[in-house]
Amino acid sequence: ALVGFNKPTAVAIVVGATNFVFSFVNLVLVDKLGRRILLLITVLGMSLSMVVAAVAFHYIPISKDLVLESSSVNWAGILVLVTIIVYVACFAAGVATIAWVGTEFLPLEVRALGTMMNTVTCWGCNIIIASTFLSMMKGMTPTGAFGFYATVCFLGFLFVLFLFPEANGLPLEDIRQVFENGFDVKLASQMQKDLKAKQQANKV
């Protein structure tokens, strides 16, 4: 409704269906591409979609009280809807599901505690976003709020790029070795290459 659509239920159904469908995309691709590659693609997609949404909001006539000052949907409103759908698709195919398999990094003796901390962090962030979103929209304008979220997503992309090793298929002992000296992304990459070479040799 904020961008001019008078059927919010239909919009919610489209967004929800996108979330559902792209969760299965993750199921198909996560073991083929690996967690790291999939996160790099989808988190960058989330950031770019938020940037486009921030720019599009600049061209939508919205008052400081978040009231639409137009009775029709312009091109910017349609673009915002498209970017939200793209964002949800990227989120569902990446962070939404991979976040829950991140516990594979944790040793067995602390995995239960780590899973609990992961859950608390996830839902804690959801509560913070839900409780501050409208205040940010009013205080920073929609463009500023979505620009802020785009920055957060881009920082997440940088985190994955430099600090998130690929652990797909690695035994727990190798994962321990990856984290002995911090976040050794290069070592994990080399281990992945060695693992694939060993698998190819076994097939021959």
From TrEMBL:
Pfam families: Sugar_tr (PF00083). Residues 1-168 form the Major facilitator superfamily (MFS) profile domain. Keywords: Membrane, Transmembrane, Transmembrane helix, Transport. The keyword Membrane applies. It is found in: Membrane. Signal peptide: none annotated. GO terms for biological process: myo-inositol import across plasma membrane. The chain crosses the membrane at residues 12-30, 37-60, 75-101, 113-134, 146-164. One of its GO terms (cellular component) is membrane. GO terms for molecular function: myo-inositol:proton symporter activity. It is a multi-pass membrane protein. This is Major facilitator superfamily (MFS) profile domain-containing protein. The lineage of its organism: Eukaryota, Fungi, Dikarya, Ascomycota, Pezizomycotina.
